[in-house]
Amino acid sequence: MFISIVIPTYNRLPILQKCLLALENQQLTNQLVSNYEVVLVDDGSTDATLEWLAANPTLLPHLKIYQQDHRGAAAARNLGVEQALGDTIIFIDSDLVVTPVFLQAHADALTAGQQELGNDRLFTYGAVINTCNFDQPTAEPYKITDFSAAYFATGNVAIAKHWLEKAGLFDTGFQLYGWEDLELGVRLKKLGLKLIKCPTAVGYHWHPAFSLEQIPRMIDQEIQRGRMGVLFYEKHPTWEVK
Question: What pLDDT digit, counting tens, does each position of 98-136 carry?
Fold first, then answer.
């Protein structure tokens, strides 16, 4: 399989550097993965993201960079999927640092799942461990609070590209924070795709330790999440979504 890792980013250069370098340090132990690319979509960053990327191409041989105005993660992921060469898409966020066996773990789980089901009507969902350890994010132990019951979440998921295209990709009406991946998950579930957990495909999600200065931003995110939640329910007025 040819894997395209699609990553939207917006003003996250310090952790993005760690994210991209970790993806260049992959250990592929069998022939399941013929090749891979890292498809980064910059969503109108105003920090030094583009300058750093332009200055360090030799560090990132698998990287392909695309740019758009600040339109949100849904539009950025759609652009990444449209430009991706791979038959398999892995979504992660730009503040996720993966282990060296990350790609191999997803490839192994996808292949095993296809053999068991007799088709590729599935996707794999890796583990996401939250950490505030910027210097060594992968040193964080797994915690019970890292458990997620989400059906489809773009923090760490692998899926055949043609299922995303059949489902219609992400709804770009979700321009604010939250829900766009779960909404796509509803449509994938209607297509009969099965979720397969892949705990060996580990990503460490970095966010800074809590401080009072974060409170205004957190409040704004929750307001945005609420607005997008209304849109989600309007599209799928079911008890499960409610």
Answer: 999 999 999 999 999 999 999 999 999 999 999 999 999
**CATH topology for 2-210?**
Spore Coat Polysaccharide Biosynthesis Protein SpsA; Chain A (3.90.550)
Each domain of the chain, given as residue ranges in start order, spans 2-210
**Which region, left, alpha or beta, applies to residue 77 given φ > 0 means left and ψ of -120 to 50 means alpha?**
alpha
Closest residue by Cα to residue 1 from 87, 113, 81: 87
Two tokens, residue 39: 């498809």
Give the mean model confidence (pLDDT) for residues 148-164: 92
Residue range 21-32, pLDDT digits in tens? 999 999 999 999
* Single-letter amino acid, residue 85: L
Distance CA 60, CA 15 (A): 15
Assess contact for 120 and 160: CB atoms under 8 A.
yes
Q: Which helix (H) or strand (E) holds 116?
A: helix 102-117
Angle (CA) 195-3-10 rounded to 5° is 85
> Nearest 5°: CA angle at 27, between 206 and 6?
50
